[in-house]
Amino acid sequence: MEQYVIKGGNPLVGEVEIGGAKNAALAILAAAVMTDDTVLIENVPDVRDTNVMLQAMESIGVRVERIDRHTVKITAKNVNGHVIEDDYIKKIRASYYLIGALLGKYKKAEVSLPGGCNIGSRPIDQHLKGFRALGAKVDIAHGMIIAQADDLKGNHIYLDVVSVGATINVMLASVMAQGVTIIENAAKEPHVVDVANFLNSMGANIKGAGTDVIRVRGVETLHGTEYAIIPDQIEAGTFMFAAAITKGDVTVKNVIPKHLESISAKLLEIGCEIEESDDAVRVVASKPLSHTHVKTLPYPGFPTDMQPQITVALALSNGTSIVTESIFENRFKYVDELTRMGANIKVEGNTAIINGVSKYTGAGITAPDLRAGAALVLAGLSAEGFTTVDDIRYIERGYEDFDIKLKSLGALIEKVDSARDLQKFKLRVG
Ligand code: EPZ
After folding, report:
1. Interval between CA 393 and ligand 1 midpoint (Å)
2. What is the pLDDT of residues 166-207, one digit of tens each?
3. Which of 63, 71, 134, 346 is positioned for an S-S bond with 152, CB 3.0–4.6 A?
4. What residue owns the CA closest to ligand 1's atom 6?
5. Which amino acid residue places its CA nearest to atom 38 of ligand 1?
6. What mean pLDDT comes out for the span 69-94?
7. Which among 382, 421, 383, 413 has a CA at the least distance from the CA of 395?
8. CA of 328 relative to ligand 1 center, distance in Å
9. Does residue 345 register a pLDDT over 90?
10. ∠ at Cα 275 (274, 281), nearest 5°?
11. What is the 3-state secondary structure (H, E, C) of 349-375?
């Protein structure tokens, strides 16, 4: 079983290129099946989740050509079914975007109920409510979601919760519906905007993405396009916090600084220096970190996908911090692992009360999910001694070459898959 072995203590220093946004890519890949023409998509991150999505698409006859590591050509002219039963699909939550895309184009979709990171109960009632409002009949049977319609008709849909997935899925299903669909209380995340821009480049008529009211005027068909996915806000944020946690100096490149504002603001608050340029952000952590309070919120608030990373930083700060998780109730599972590394954190419901300690000590830990897994790696990078991280398959769902990028910043980290390799690493780095 592959694991990371880390020798902590090196400040991370240097520049790192950020890849395409995983969560935008998952929706954009699914959306590409909505035209018979060929679609070229650039800046697709080469991570497990996007690869599973592409395999699922191939399973229904979509032609996927890899032009290079980050560019794919997708042709969905010869789709031979609307049933995504593939075992892989249960592994990625974003498989639900294929329901919106297939329903929107073929008025029919059968997709396994989504899996994904175990970060709390993750209902999809708002997606289904949206499909039904557009006139689809939606049933759940034998682990599948079955959606079909004679015709989809635009409607006024008020989402009860701000949901990235439901906003995107309703957009997909409504793009070729008759008339106008209005999505109220829509999510405003950068990847919602990216998906809308992608669909518009295929001929859709979507206005208001990035605000809480999105207006979709249905069009007859969509056509081919060439499109580059936006940079990954969370990958960038993770490396920015890596600088803070290891007392380093890291420049994240190829980013949209505006998307990182809530992250930069918290780093400033805890004592880091931030330098922004057009497409890069530099984080310098030369002073001891100070405490703060943070609550995760939908965009433009502080992202839930950055909650474990900021907690790892605050657990090393001076004083008491409070982190409130308001999106996913089960997102503090990693705290027990962090405690084994010396953190002093008490979780009560959706709140973590953190009393800062001066250092972590290395331990054998397990990644419970994608973002917490990455955050625990960052803890290992600052810890005294060796840390091993198991279940790194979670981390590989969403971070491309995480270990390689960290190494390029001076981290002592290695992916190993045997006790012998682990020993070799320990001997090599001392
Ligand atoms: C997306 O999940 C991301 N995943 C998550 O990233 C991210 O944490 C989350 O948005 C929030 O930003 C993908 O894009 C594939 P939501 P999603 O619907 O769409 C409730 C990562 O680490 N809700 O915005 O599933 C829900 O329970 C992953 O990359 C309903 O009640 O999240 C939650 O409390 C993990 N009913 C809140 O809304 C619904 O029908 C927001 O969830 C849908 C959601």
Report:
1. 20
2. 999 999 999 999 999 999 999 999 999 999 999 999 999 999
3. 134
4. 305
5. 163
6. 83
7. 413
8. 8
9. yes
10. 90
11. CCEEEEECCCCCECCEEECCCHHHHHH
Nearest to 144 by CA among 174, 109, 101: 109
- Of 96, 217, 199, 215, nearest to 147 by C-alpha is 96
Q: Are 380 and 395 in contact (CB under 8 A)?
A: no
Q: Which two tokens stand for residue 98?
A: 């294929």
Which residues are the active-site residues?
Answer: 117
Q: Which atom of ligand 1 is nearest to the CA of 234?
A: 29
The Å distance, Cα 231 to ligand 1 centre, comes to: 19
Strands 364-366 and 137-141: unpaired
**What pLDDT digit, counting tens, does each position of 273-314 carry?**
999 999 999 999 999 999 999 999 999 999 999 999 999 999
Alpha carbons 179 and 172: distance in angstroms, whole number: 14
Starting from the edge strand earliest in sequence, which strands make up the sheet with 38-42, in order?
A: 63-68, 71-75, 38-42, 226-228
pLDDT of residue 361: 98
Residues near 221 by beta carbon (within 8 Å), at least 6 away in sequence: 35, 176, 203
Specify whether the CB–CB gap between 105 and 72 falls below 8 A.
Answer: no
Bridge partners of 412, per DSSP, are 7
Going across the sheet that includes 156-158, the strands are 156-158, 180-184, 213-217, 205-207
Nearest alpha carbon, ligand 1 atom 33: 327
Ligand 1 atom nearest 129 alpha carbon: 40
Residue nearest to ligand 1 atom 26, measured at CA: 122
Using CA positions, which residue lies closest to atom 10 of ligand 1? Answer: 164
Distance (angstroms) between ligand 1 centre and the Cα of 89 equals 17
Beta bridge mates, 108: 148
In angstroms, what is the span from residue 412 Cα to ligand 1's centroid?
A: 33
| Residue position matching structure tokens 């593939």 | 86
Residues near ligand 1 (Cβ within 6 A)? 23, 26, 93-94, 117, 119, 122-127, 161, 163-166, 187, 304-305, 327-328, 370-371, 398
Look at residue 58 and give its three-state secondary structure. helix
